[in-house]
Amino acid sequence: MYVTNVNSTEINETMPGVSLRWLLSKEIGTPHFEMRYIEIKQGYNSFGDPHEFEHEVYVLKGKGRIEGKDQTVEINPGDAILIFPGEKHRFFSTGRESLEMICIIPNGAEDRMKDKNFFCKP
Amino acid sequence: MYVTNVNSTEINETMPGVSLRWLLSKEIGTPHFEMRYIEIKQGYNSFGDPHEFEHEVYVLKGKGRIEGKDQTVEINPGDAILIFPGEKHRFFSTGRESLEMICIIPNGAEDRMKDKNFFCKP
User: Which pTM was predicted?
Assistant: First the structure.
C-alpha cells in the first residue's frame, strides 16, 4: 500500500499557469496507469495537441471548458471526462478560482513531463 | 470525448452502506481503465478480500482508514492511494460524513459489480 497527499507532493510547472503533481506514478510501482493532480490557473489553458493515449479526468474545483476538434464542452466539479486516444483537446480555466482535476493516463505516457525542467511556451 | 457528472450517474448499492457509480467504464469506450465513484456511509466498510488487480484511489470527502494485512492507514481528503495487486485491504468510513472516493481499476476487473442486483452480505 502506498499513500500520499496532494499537499505533500512536489509541484511541477509544466507551462505558464499550469502545474502538475505526480500522485501515483510507475516510479512508485503503479502496474498500469498513473494518477496526476493538475491545476490550471484562472485564464490559462493546457496543451492542445492530440496524443495516442487516453485521458481520464475528474474535476475537483473551478470551472472550465474543453475545446475539441468539433465540439466545446463546459466542465464543472463532479464531471468525469474521457478523452479518447488521438482526440484533440485543450482545457481552459474560466472560473474565478483555479481549475483542479485528477487525470489518469497509461504508465509512461507522459514521462517527459516528470522532468522538473520541462517547459513549453504556450 | 465523453462527459458525465457524478450527480447524473446511476447509483449501485454493492453492499449495505456502500454505493458505486460507474463514471467511465469500458461500455462507453475506456481503452484500459475504468473510473468509479465510491461512497461509504459513516460506520460502514468495503469488501476486504484481496484481488489480482490494483486499485488507485483519490479521497474526496470524509475520513477513514484502510486495514491491510500488516498495516492500518488513516485516510483524508486529498490522499492518493495505490493498493497493489494481491494486497489485502478494507476501507472503513470513520468520519461524521460519508467517505467519498474516486477509484480506478483495469478494464473489466470488477464487471460483476455492474449488475444492479449484485449484493454481498458483509
Answer: 0.95
